[in-house]
């Protein structure tokens, strides 16, 4: 046991720590963050299965917007980690200021711009009539103020790069509590509230994020990070270039993934809203399968950034394969448990026997998806933490548009395999990407990246 603990030790810029201490805040934050969507789905399933399908379809487009400011935060975190790894805290402070201003500006433009085109965008998802109208209301309320998530993500990146991940956990926990209370009031209406149903759930989403953004800004100003607020117009800030260098590939990759998911959902919509609702239920369930592995991958990328910034590439490489084995173990065992006992868990969402029977075989296919997904998460975060951001982006885009979408249509619609065909397409995508990223890591070309 002592040897295992020694293997998990990390020599961080702020002194020795352990992989477990870095991983746990990421894991807790991911669970709490994902619980927002999970709670909304469970609450809305008590309202109607059709409402779940409407919100789930609209959220496919919402994710297209959120990935932009999430990618800005991710790119800023890489640049910050390299500065912190070199112990250049003055540069890290300048990076943090630039990151915060960029996140707010970009998410404001995208949020209000895209909410204006909500109806034509949702028509692209094959929504019509009353479903289109309800989805449009939800989309506008959630997307217009999405700059709040830009603030949350950018400030969270600042805390993470300085090894204060627990602050984001506390704020996200509070956000979940506010969201849960307001969702319950909007759907079950134990007392009179201004909004109910789908608009009420959207308003709860907005209010909870408003509280979280305000808390993040207060903690940044008065918290433990040595942050000195200063305003410099984004177009004059020299830190824009390194942040964009790491952000644009991640943003394009995330946007491409969300866009391809939106297209696959629109393909499945043609098979009926029951199929879409089943997809939403499975996605909400299996996200807890890969959550631990994904959180470990995030911690892994953070440590990789520190090590590479300090010129310790060999240590980063050894850590990479040690963590890869841990993720395989986590994803494999958890996906098997979900496949065996998923029927019980699905009752949290719906009592419809036909939907539950539709979902059960998909959970066994998902075992292979999660093993490959674990490889992608570790290798992608490793390469990005090392500054090799373009290669994972190109791999992701090509696989999503040349593998997932054609195979979803071929297997799901043409060969009439339905949702099972879609999940087989997801498995093929994850498997091909994992192979390509492993080959990139083994080639050692990531060591040639200029920071």
Rg is: 21 Å
Category by helix and strand content: mainly alpha
H/I helix tally: 15
Q: Could you give the order of the helices and strands?
A: HEEHHHHHHHHHHHHHH
Q: Could you tell me the strand content as a percent range?
A: under 5%
Q: Estimate percent helicity.
A: over 70%
Biggest sheet descriptor: 2 strands, antiparallel
Q: Main sheet: which strands, in order across?
A: 1-2
Mean pLDDT: 81
Shape: globular
Task: Report what the structure shows.
This protein has 15 helices and 2 strands. It has 451 residues and is an all-alpha fold. α13 (353-385) runs parallel beside α15. 53% of the residues are buried. Strands 1-2 form a two-stranded antiparallel sheet.
In short:
With 451 residues, the protein is mainly α. It has helices spanning 2-7, 19-45, 49-85, 89-116, 118-123, 129-143, 147-161, 165-188, 197-222, 240-269, 273-309, 313-346, 353-385, 390-414, 418-443, and strands spanning 9-12, 15-18.
């Amino acid at each position: 046991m002592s040897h295992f603990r020694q293997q998990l030790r990390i020599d961080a810029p702020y002194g020795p720590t352990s992989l477990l201490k870095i991983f746990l805040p990421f894991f807790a934050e991911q669970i709490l963050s994902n619980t927002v969507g999970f709670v909304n789905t469970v609450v809305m399933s008590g309202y109607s299965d059709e409402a779940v399908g409407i919100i789930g379809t609209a959220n496919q487009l919402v994710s297209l917007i959120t990935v932009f400011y999430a990618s800005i935060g991710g790119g800023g975190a890489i640049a910050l980690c390299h500065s912190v790894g070199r112990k250049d805290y003055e540069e890290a402070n300048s990076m943090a200021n630039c990151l915060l201003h960029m996140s707010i500006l970009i998410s404001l433009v995208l949020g209000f711009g895209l909410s204006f085109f909500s109806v034509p965008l949702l028509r692209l998802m094959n929504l019509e009539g009353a479903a289109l109208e309800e989805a449009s209301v939800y989309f506008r309320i959630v997307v217009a103020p999405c700059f709040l998530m830009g603030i949350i993500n950018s400030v969270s990146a600042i805390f993470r790069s300085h090894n204060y991940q627990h602050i984001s956990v506390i704020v996200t926990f509070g956000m979940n509590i506010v969201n849960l209370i307001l969702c319950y009031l909007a759907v079950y209406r134990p007392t009179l509230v201004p909004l109910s149903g789908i608009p009420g759930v959207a308003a709860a989403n907005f209010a909870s994020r408003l509280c979280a953004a305000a808390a993040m800004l207060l903690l940044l100003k008065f918290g433990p990070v040595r942050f000195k607020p200063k305003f410099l117009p984004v177009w004059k800030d020299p830190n824009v270039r390194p942040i964009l260098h790491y952000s644009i590939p991640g943003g394009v990759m995330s946007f491409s993934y969300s866009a391809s998911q939106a297209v696959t959902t629109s393909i499945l919509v043609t098979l009926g809203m029951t199929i879409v609702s089943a997809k939403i239920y499975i996605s909400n369930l299996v996200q807890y399968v890969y959550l631990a592995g994904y959180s470990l991958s995030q911690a892994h990328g953070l440590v990789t950034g520190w090590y590479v910034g300090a010129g310790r590439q060999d240590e980063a490489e050894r850590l990479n394969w040690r963590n890869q084995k841990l993720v395989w173990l986590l994803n494999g065992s958890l996906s098997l448990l979900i496949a065996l006992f998923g029927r019980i868990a699905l009752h949290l969402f719906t009592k419809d026997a036909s939907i539950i029977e539709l979902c059960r075989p998909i959970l066994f296919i998902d075992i292979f998806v999660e093993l490959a997904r674990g490889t992608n998460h570790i290798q992608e975060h490793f390469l990005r933490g090392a500054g090799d951001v373009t290669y994972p982006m190109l791999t992701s885009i090509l696989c999503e548009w040349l593998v997932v979408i054609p195979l979803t249509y071929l297997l799901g619609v043409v060969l009439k395999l339905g949702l099972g065909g879609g999940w087989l397409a997801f498995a093929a995508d994850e498997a091909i990407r994992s192979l390509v990223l492993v080959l990139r890591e083994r080639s050692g070309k990531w060591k040639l990246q200029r920071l």
